Amino acid sequence: MQVMRATVIHGPHDVRLETVPDPVIQRPTDAVVRVVAACVCGSDLWSYRGVRPTTEPGRIGHEFVGVVEEVGADVRSVRPGQFVIAPFSIADNTCVHCRHGVHTSCEQLAWWGSPDHDGVPSDAGQGEYVRVPLADGTLVATPEQPSSELLPHVLSLSDVMGTGHHAARAAQVGPGSTVVVVGDGAVGLCAVIAARRLGAERVVAMSRHADRQALAQRFGATDVVAERGPDGVARVRDLLDGIGADCVLECVGTKESMQQALDSARPGGRVGFVGVPAGGPELPVQQMFSTNVSVAGGVAPVRGYIPELLEDVWSGAIQPGLVFDLVLPLAEVAEAYAAMDERRAIKSMLLP
Amino acid sequence: MQVMRATVIHGPHDVRLETVPDPVIQRPTDAVVRVVAACVCGSDLWSYRGVRPTTEPGRIGHEFVGVVEEVGADVRSVRPGQFVIAPFSIADNTCVHCRHGVHTSCEQLAWWGSPDHDGVPSDAGQGEYVRVPLADGTLVATPEQPSSELLPHVLSLSDVMGTGHHAARAAQVGPGSTVVVVGDGAVGLCAVIAARRLGAERVVAMSRHADRQALAQRFGATDVVAERGPDGVARVRDLLDGIGADCVLECVGTKESMQQALDSARPGGRVGFVGVPAGGPELPVQQMFSTNVSVAGGVAPVRGYIPELLEDVWSGAIQPGLVFDLVLPLAEVAEAYAAMDERRAIKSMLLP
């Protein structure tokens, strides 16, 4: 291994590729992974924009795939040379919460770039190498090395595809469902894929951008609604039996988007939400009570979804990696952020 | 028919049995029902206590069973002489929302004691007779006249048993579920029945009253927790694998009870709520996001549940009518309210 480089955020609009210490196995359950592809998440932009303040320079990035270089003595399920997918959170995959499928509440939960329960800092994903804690629980190996065509689709399983799938599962999308997707970012677009994959008959993508509308339709959206607010709700009702959707997938996280979601569901409908709540808008319980519209979801336990989604990615049945419309070398990570921040890109992929 | 009497609310702590006009068939879809038993609902106490202001004297009561006296020309599914159950809301049972099982969002929804869409006033349940609009959609006939032993159980299907069942269904209680019931009123107690009926393995009743604790246990609660707030949550976790419940049934409607419910669910758990939100406490979306605890439920579409629940009532498999611990003649309706208001009774049954 060489002296490695990784992305460090210093403050608003200031991410830099810097030389950092080489990762080493610190615990027998660790692995070291050479990153083959990483990406920038919409939630990384929160720090980038200063909405979430950066108090001291820190490693950033929580979506990556790569090749196992080295494993600790207790690692059993992955071995050097294997290609692996890392979900956006670290989990043991054995505790009671993981067994319930809620890996994001794992008893040993840790986040890339943050200290774990013992205060040991974790590496982050936008770098050349990553020390992976709880490697057996966290990593999922692919059948073999993916081709360069497959690579973006596989990478999407680290977050956005699993997160869109979580929204669809939380909203109980099933065969014949009518679905509205609020949000045309990478997660919303993947939610369109997920809804169709689970059998939805109608999928209405709410989007005002021609390129994203086109991608939503390529992913299986049957309808596009550009309007927002009450006009958007009226259009959705027009399209869906005059009553609204069985399932609404909220993939933004603002007060407005949640209200859009609640208003777009039919009585008894279900909102599945995965948009990180921005500023903690609370849910209008009286509206939920009188309409019987439910709200389920949260931070997506993507680890548990990787195996089933990987099957469909590997077979070519789904192509979520099409959300990456900008591919840059890791050295240009600053531009990868800027392009997403300025909405010149839906999602940036980084190749170390 | 004689000149009939019905309950009229005049203001806080002022309900009176008064002579009112005899009900007559006004539309061909109406029926007239002679009330055999009615009851007082916890939500009636809102008006009784002045929380919901009474602007002018009005008929009250939305839970009753009785015998069909007369039907309009278009009524097909019930006939004079049949014993019928009236759910707490009026519905056509044919519109798109009813077909989705959300009878409380029926396109022709109306409430007992309130004007319907055309401004025609509806009768209410705490009286001797009731004009029933949309009789085919609203009423469910029993196989035959219930015995006096069966009567309270059958009456409970007009609201509390169906409402408790809705909480359990909304929380997706199933075989093996661990369940917490927040609220030991009639609905909470019925929710215990519902949870066990749907296969719950553990049902923790949160109750501080010895008589209600005993009834909860008779209904199948496996555990009772008297503590509230953080102490209550700690006790629940102790009892349920250290993590909390798969399903929590919120049967109160206050900010505190909803918080108790959210805190009592395990990560990924499900809150089913049927407590009428008092004062509109909003839901903490950030907590729901980070824990993946969902919230479903609302005003219960009991009409749709009556047939399946009636089967179990009729066979004696469930005995929800045990929640009636005070039986009074209709003439003593004022005492029926006072006893519930002062918590001397869980629920009052009225016999005209």
Describe this protein's structure.
2 copies of one chain form a homodimer. The first copy, chain A, has 352 residues and is an alpha/beta fold. The first copy, chain A, folds into 2 domains: 4-159 and 301-351, Alpha-Beta Complex (Quinone Oxidoreductase, Chain A, domain 1); 164-297, 3-Layer(aba) Sandwich (Rossmann fold), CATH 3.40.50. Chain A contains 12 helices and 18 strands. In chain A, strands 3, 5, 6, 9, 10, 17 and 18 form a 7-stranded mixed beta sheet that branches. In chain A, α10 links the parallel β15 (265-273) and β16 (294-297). In chain A, α5 crosses α6 (186-197), α5 packs across α11 (302-315) and α8 packs parallel to α9 (255-264). The radius of gyration of chain A is 20 Å and the shape is globular. The mean pLDDT of chain A is 96.
The oligomeric state is homodimer
What is the name of the CATH superfamily of the largest domain in chain A? Medium-chain alcohol dehydrogenases, catalytic domain
Overall pLDDT metric of chain A? 96
Secondary structure category of chain A? alpha/beta
CATH fold field value of the largest domain in chain A: Quinone Oxidoreductase, Chain A, domain 1
Shape of chain A: globular
* The CATH top-level class label of the largest domain in chain A: Alpha Beta
Can you name the CATH architecture of the largest domain in chain A? Alpha-Beta Complex
Largest sheet data of chain A: 7 strands, mixed
Relative helix content of chain A = 25-40%
